Amino acid sequence: MVGRDQTGDVGSGAGKTGGAGGAIREAGGAFGKMEAARGAFGKMEAAREEEYFYKKQKDQLEKMKTDLEKDVARHEAEKQQLEEKIAKQKRSIEELEKEAIKTSQKSQDKDKDYNPIVE
């Protein structure tokens, strides 16, 4: 059974059997440098990818916020229009009620003046 410390890390140059990875790697030969460069480029690429998705998510969140703000503004405008319609209709109701009261009073006045018996 191979111990955990014998497997080595990716890009460390250590072999799976716990060896140092060979004399060329130990001496800093071309193969070791290429492998180290690949590791550095891999890390850079991972960082770029992470940055790309971070920016993409940030842009998506900003767009969502903008869209929601537009929706809120549109709903506020609709609310204002509906409130104005309600106020207008309430004024119409009040005018109709006043007219009904006037008509009722005229009818009562006519009833007072009405004398069916002519002498």
UniProtKB/TrEMBL annotation:
Keyword Coiled coil appears in the UniProt entry: yes
Localization, UniProt: Mitochondrion
Record's compositionally biased regions (Gly residues): 10-22
Residue span of region Disordered: 1-26, 66-119
InterPro entries named in the record: ATPase_inhibitor_mt
Keyword annotations from UniProtKB, A to Z: Coiled coil, Mitochondrion, Transit peptide
Pfam entry (one): IATP
GO CC list: mitochondrion
Transit peptide found in the keyword field: yes
GO terms of molecular function: ATPase inhibitor activity
PANTHER family: ATP SYNTHASE F1 SUBUNIT EPSILON
Biological role: Thought to be a regulatory component of the ATP-synthesizing complex in the mitochondria.
Family membership noted in the UniProt record: Belongs to the ATPase inhibitor family.
Protein name per UniProt: ATPase inhibitor, mitochondrial
Organism expressing this protein natively: Acrobeloides nanus
